[in-house]
Design goal:
By secondary structure, the chain is mainly β. It has helices at about 30-35, 40-45; strands spanning about 10-15, 50, 70-75, 90-95, 95-105, 120-130, 130, 145-150, 170-175, 175-180, 195-200, 200-205, 225-235, 235-245, 250-255. The chain starts with 8 loop residues before the first strand and ends in a 5-residue tail after the last strand.
């Protein structure tokens, strides 16, 4: 900041990146315009970003870059001194979306069963029409849009974003999809986002969820990576493992010192 634009005191900082091409829920208002209009911290915390999905790519963010934000960072600023924020001016940005992937495998040690043909995979359930720009608001958003059999493509390269998994163990890996944060008041499987899977004329469903601890959490948390794993045993798809890990490869910005 130029000298003289900030005086000594305690300040709260928020950081937003890649806001271009996102809109708020206010008609025709861009996120950039909403940020320019912020005068109080409470204004920023209440900004609601529209969950816009393009016609050609229904399950990925509209913008070519991922919207990210973080805060608050509180710091004592002394005018005329070398001031630093966060961890020595290293700020980790939080992605506004989660990512998810479906992977299917045969039983471990299988020697006789051939991999079946996956006819189709679709996504079903509801996503909120908006999400809060700044992380932390866990209220359920009741204004939603339904996914009705949105097609999920296979990843022909079988690239898994969970690096603890070996692609060679799976006969099917889906593309990575991106989902807005979503909290549920009634956190049950019936309200979960679901993959609908057709294998050789048989239909199955599997949730996107965190099953690493009991009870299973069907909320979708930003900046997390969800992997749903199904095992095809004796011509039946079952035994779903619901994994979630932090979305690695944190995006870090360097804030230059300012006086």
């Amino acid at each position: 900041l130029p000298a003289g634009t900030i005086t000594s005191g305690v300040y709260t900082f928020y950081f937003v990146a890649n806001e271009d091409n996102y809109n708020t829920i206010t008609e025709s208002q861009t996120l950039s315009a909403a940020l320019d209009a912020v005068t109080y911290e409470s204004n920023l915390e209440l900004i609601q970003v529209a969950t816009s999905m393009t016609t050609s790519d229904q399950v990925k963010p509209t913008a070519s870059q991922m919207l990210m934000s973080t805060g608050p960072y509180t710091a004592l600023i002394r005018e005329g001194e070398d001031n630093r924020i966060g961890d020595n001016n290293h700020i980790e940005l939080v992605r506004a979306f989660a990512k998810a992937q479906l992977a299917l495998k045969l039983p471990e040690g299988n020697t006789s069963q051939d991999a079946p043909t996956v006819t189709s995979v679709t996504l079903n359930g509801s996503i909120p029409d908006y999400f809060y720009l700044i992380p932390g608001n866990k209220a359920e958003i009741t204004s939603t849009t339904s996914f009705n059999n949105r097609t999920i493509s296979a990843d022909v390269t079988k690239t898994l974003f969970n690096e603890d998994l070996d692609p060679a163990d799976y006969f099917y890996v889906s593309e990575t999809i991106y989902l807005p944060e979503r909290y549920l008041t009634n956190n049950i499987e019936e309200n979960a986002l679901q993959y609908s899977i057709t294998i050789e004329d048989n239909n199955y469903s599997a949730p996107i969820a965190d099953g690493t601890e009991a009870p299973v959490d069907y909320n979708i948390i930003r900046n997390c990576a969800y992997t749903t794993i199904g095992t095809y045993r004796q011509e039946v798809l079952s035994n779903f493992d619901l994994l979630v890990v932090p979305w690695d490869d944190e995006k870090v910005i360097e804030v230059p010192p300012f006086e």
